[in-house]
Structures are given as C-alpha cells and as structure tokens.
Amino acid sequence: MILDFVRATGGVTRSDIDVATNLERQMFETINLDRRGFLGTAAMTIAAADFSMMGSAAAQAVRRNPASVPPIKPGTNTSFGPLKQIDAGVLNIGYAEAGRIDGPTVILLHGWPYDIHSYVDVAPLLASAGYRVIVPYLRGYGTTSFLSSATMRNAQQSAVGLDIIALMDALKIQKATVAGFDWGARTADVMAVLWPERCKAIVSVSGYLISSPAGNQTPLPPQAAFAFWYQYYFATEVGKAGYAKYLNEFNKFIWHQASPKWNFDDATYNRTAASFNNPDHVDIVMHDYRWRLGLADGERQYDDLEKRLAALPAVTVPAITMEGDSNGAIHAPSTAYRNKFSGEYDYRLITGGVGHNLPQEAPQAFAQAVLDVNS
C-alpha cells in the first residue's frame, strides 16, 4: 500500500530513480527477484527520499503496559470457537468472538489475501487479558455476505470502514480499539480519522495507509512499479479471469512473496484459503485495486467521506504502528508517515524474520501492542 501513500504525497524524483537503480545493481546477484524483499528495499529507499523533508509530530510516546503477554509459539491454535453472524449495514457479517462480554473491546481486522486466522493466536492472548475480542470477515471473505444482490460489490476504503462501524452498532459497541494489517490497517486508519469518537486507539501494521485515486496517479519508477505487478494485472479482464482460475495458487504465491521467511505449512494456508470461496471475493478484490488506481468508480453515498480521506488527515487517537523486519510487501519507512500520527504514538520493528502477516507470524508482539496502546 506504500504505492498509494507515495503517490498521494508527492511522487518521485530523477535522483530517487537513480538511487533505486544503483541499489538494484548492487543487490541483483544476491536476491531472488521472485521475492518482494528486493523491491521493498528499493521502494523504501525511494520513499525515504520522498519524505526526508517531512517533519515529526510532537506527541507523547505510548507507555508500555506493565502486564506482559505470555510467550506463545505461532500456530499453537488452529481454530476459533463457533462463528457468529449478524446483520450490519449492507452485510451479514461472520465473525469470531472471544473473551468477556463486559471487557474492553478490541476489533481485529485482516487483509488480502488473508482472513480471520491471522488472529487465531492473538485472540486468546487478548481474551486472557480481559478483552472482548471481535474478529470479523471483511466483505468478500468467509461467511460475510451482502444482504442484497443489488448492492454494488464495492471495496473502496470508506465503505469497508463503515462496515466495521455498522458491526459495532449492531453489537452495541460504542468504542473499541481497532487493530489490523494490510486492508485491516488501512481500515483502522480510516476509522480513526473519520470516527475518532468510536476508536479508543489503533494498532496499524505498516503505518498510515489512507490514499485516494487522484493521489495515485503519479507514476512510479520501474523498480517500485514492478512490486505492484498484481495491481496492474487486476486492472485487466485477463487478470480477473486469471485470479479466479488460479485463486489458491495466486494467493499462496503472494503469501510467499510477502513473508519470505515464514515457513507456513499447507494446513495453515488451507484454513485461510477456504475464505476465498466467498462468491463475492473476486469482485471485491478487483474493485479494491481498480478503485485505488481510478479505474473503477465508487458509490456516490461515500463521496463526502472519500473527500475527507483524500486530504490525508492525521490520526489523533493513541496509535502504535508496527513492521516486520522481513516484510516482503513494499512499505514505507516509519519516518515517512510519522507526522500522520499526532496523538500518543509508538513505532515497533519486530525482528526475527517476521513478514507481512505480522499478527500470525508474531502473535505475542501484536497482542502486546494492543495492551500497550490501551495503557
């Protein structure tokens, strides 16, 4: 999603391209080009140059919670309890729930191509700490479905954010901590700036991910653009047909690219892959990436919300942003988005070969961030 943020905040210079090109020459012989790791490094260099003049917001640091999350081996848990369903807005949302009904609420949001199993180890850790944990399938995934066949299969950022507000309303949750990665991190950011009164705090992997189609019109140099091959592939009808035909192979390939050091097994992938069988999944994924590039229209009912988001407003609620040290998905350095968080704030780099799917790869660190952002 750094593609969105880089474009939205100013583009690149000739010197940036030269830096990336030189970096490519130095690294080409040692890094396999089928990993997004090389391209992530190149794009981070570009982003760092772009944002070198951006100032830091004056804000207090988030305090570490004296309560520590116990160690857990990733993959300790493989399932949730029985899933629940509830009508919320334009959807019937499927979700997992754990913990005390009267505890402080945390909502955990997945991304693409992932699902609620990204939090299968995080949820019990937070439940044991006294939280009420809600883990919904986003539109187009798992057991979440549209209430009407006439509703546009729309994945623009404000619509997905409003889904979670509708879920909170349906569950009579006035305020919650919202935590996520990928689409889920973007949604946490969106909720924090549009409805700060509903967000106690957020945890956002890879930082500030709000963008706009207009802001995404600045071309990127080839080294960075290559990392987003799938977005350009999805812009074509052949790409849509290819994604539908090779759905499992495609998404497993993305998993390997985004988390090159995560040695997940077939059973782990297959538990998540079942959620891609949702009848709206392909349409939702296509609309998300086409809308970002201005190749698909949104719905007029969201225009005012999108206009507010296009201004790239700062997140004012307490926030922790995180990154895995082996995130193969292209992402900005933390300095690039620091001034987009004006409240209490902390940034954490999680080491040990942690990739893009941070909550599933490092559940203890992710759960600890949720505890700390609430301290």
Any chance you could write out the topology, listing elements then pairs?
Elements: H1 2-8, H2 14-27, H3 36-50, E1 84-88, E2 91-99, E3 105-109, H4 122-128, E4 132-136, E5 145-146, H5 157-170, E6 176-180, H6 183-194, E7 199-205, H7 222-226, H8 229-234, H9 237-245, H10 247-258, H11 266-273, H12 281-292, H13 303-310, E8 319-324, E9 345-350, H14 358-361, H15 363-373
Parallel strand pairs: 3-4, 3-6, 6-7, 7-8, 8-9
Antiparallel strand pairs: 1-2, 2-4, 2-5
Helix pairs in contact: 2-3, 4-15, 5-6
Distance between the termini: 29 Å
* CATH class term: Alpha Beta
Low-pLDDT windows of residues: 5-58
Instruction: Give the tally of structural domains.
Output: 1
Looking at CATH, the homologous superfamily is Alpha/Beta hydrolase fold, catalytic domain
Could you estimate the helical fraction of the residues in percent?
Answer: 25-40%
Q: State the total count of DSSP E strands.
A: 9
Describe the main β-sheet briefly: 9 strands, mixed
One letter per element, helices H and strands E, the order comes to: HHHEEEHEEHEHEHHHHHHHEEHH
Return the CATH topology.
Rossmann fold
From the spread of the alpha carbons, the general shape counts as globular
Overall pLDDT, averaged?
87
* Rg over CA atoms: 19 Å
CATH architecture: 3-Layer(aba) Sandwich
Helix/strand structural class: alpha/beta
Strand content: 5-15%
**SS summary, helix count:** 15
